[in-house]
Amino acid sequence: MMKGRSLLRLAGMLMVVALVSVVGINAHSSNVTAASAEKHSDIITINVIGELGDMELPAVTYRHDLHTDALKKMDKDCATCHESEQGSMELTFKRTGDMSANELKDLYHQNCVGCHADMAKAGQDTGPLESECRSCHNPKPNMVSDRKPIDMDKSLHARHISSKKIVVSQQDKNCGACHMNVDVVAGTATYVPGTEDNDNGYGEGFVKYKCPKAAAHSSCISCHMSEAKKDAASTGPVTCAGCHSPVAQKAMKTVPAERLDRGQPDSLLIVPDTAAKSDIAPVAFDHKLHEANVKDCSTCHINGIGNEKDGFKPLYSDMHDAKSSASCVGCHAMRVAQDPTCAGCHSMIPVQNFNEQSCATCHNANGVTVKQAAKMSKKERNAVAASVIAARESGTVTYTAEEIPEFVKIDALADKYEASNMPHRKIVETMLNATADSKLAGSFHAEKGKVCQACHHQSPMSIKPPKCQSCHSEAFKNGDRPGLKAAYHQQCMTCHTEMNIQKPQNTECAGCHAARAN
């Protein structure tokens, strides 16, 4: 009896060991699979049936370029799988309209599996056949997508504009080749100047597509295919990897982008609504300069800013919303937060800390009242703006090197460490040199001593600002002010962190304070 129990015990232990081993092997296999998975830019998940209801099997992981290459060897093209409507290729498979789940299931199986079966009968290498369901409906395919979105940036846009291939009756510098207004009912497509930024960026006509992705793929690929028939060597990609592969994008030729001519002025006078603040000056806005620093027109001209339907009347919130990347204040705040040379100071400065001085930086058309500007013609206002911009000094203004102390000894808290002999002038000069070429910094640091206020905050601009301990004495005695030690460390360490300063690091005490001898 005891012998039997021992055998059972031994069998149980072996069972546990076996289970642990199996689990370990499976886990190891999963890791190997994930690490060694093939990367492809043409992976498409076909789950259109699952979106209509429950599927018996997992969605299909489909290699698009793999099939495109196979069709090319058979002298076939995209039309084998994609039908066309009104001259543009439809992205849906073998259909132009909606279908039920059962209809879609039959459509895919008859055409996909049917094509594979025909190739197999012909003795050709092919994909899975009817009995190999899991080859397509694989819940864990050993591949991952490295697909990278492509952006019609200024360089790529300039290449299309300069291409002789896309001239359509010489319509407004080729804009009409892509930006068409389509009347689906009448079956017409015409170019209307000034509508390029409407809807999703392709013109109002592309409302017939469900999304910008469909418009881009259908129109762009159709054009590339058409041009390839004339000259395959000088046209755009027609495969997924041709546009979306990280390697292909890195190899794309970059050209200088010319300014897009939309009839816009180089400079303009933005006149505030008198209801907001009657005594504030208009804004002399350098439109050309800002164009060069944004992606495209829609970066700013969205949600009513500068749109004709709103009478080109910008609202206060459009310009001053610190959380919007399309507003003036929000865009400036985003730029200084992302640039380490600026973030050291601006990470500690409230974005909406407006005062009369900061308002005057933009509202700079002094001598012109809002009422006077309102009576001017557009041409006259633009001329005023141009003269203000031309006369404006650009560049950071500060005190001379002799006026700025070379070293500042911080000894009010010397205890375990020696006093910190801060290289004050070197820090100031480093900050100024880092922003010397920035027009944004030049505009907002144009007042003498303005740049000093990053550290000497809440103090009037002065060559001799009050000492820190005049405000930071006892911790939190006055509102939310930290004590002197915390104020020093917060200011200095935060700046080092945001500016990625490695020497000394923000946690290296002895880098600023020599240790005292016992």
What does this 3D model show about the protein?
- The chain is mainly alpha-helical.
- It folds into five domains: 36 residues; 108 residues, Cytochrome C3; 98 residues, Cytochrome C3; 121 residues, Cytochrome C3 (Alpha-Beta Complex), CATH 3.90.10; 105 residues, Cytochrome C3 (Alpha-Beta Complex), CATH 3.90.10.
- The protein is 38% helix and 7% strand.
- It has 19 helices and twelve strands.
- Strands 1-6 form a two-stranded parallel ribbon.
- A hairpin with a 2-residue loop joins strand 4 and strand 5.
- The longest helix is centred in the N-terminal third of the chain and has 34 residues.
Secondary-structure map:
Blueprint (H helix, E strand, L loop, with lengths): L1 H34 L2 E3 L2 E4 L13 E4 H10 L10 E2 L2 E2 L11 H21 L11 H4 L6 E3 L8 H9 L18 E3 L4 E3 L21 H19 L9 H5 L1 H6 L15 E4 L12 E4 H5 L24 H5 L7 H11 L1 H7 L9 H7 L7 H6 L2 H14 L16 E3 L9 E3 L1 H11 L4 H6 L39 H15 L10 H4 L6
Parallel strand pairs: 1-6
Antiparallel strand pairs: 2-3, 4-5, 7-8, 9-10, 11-12
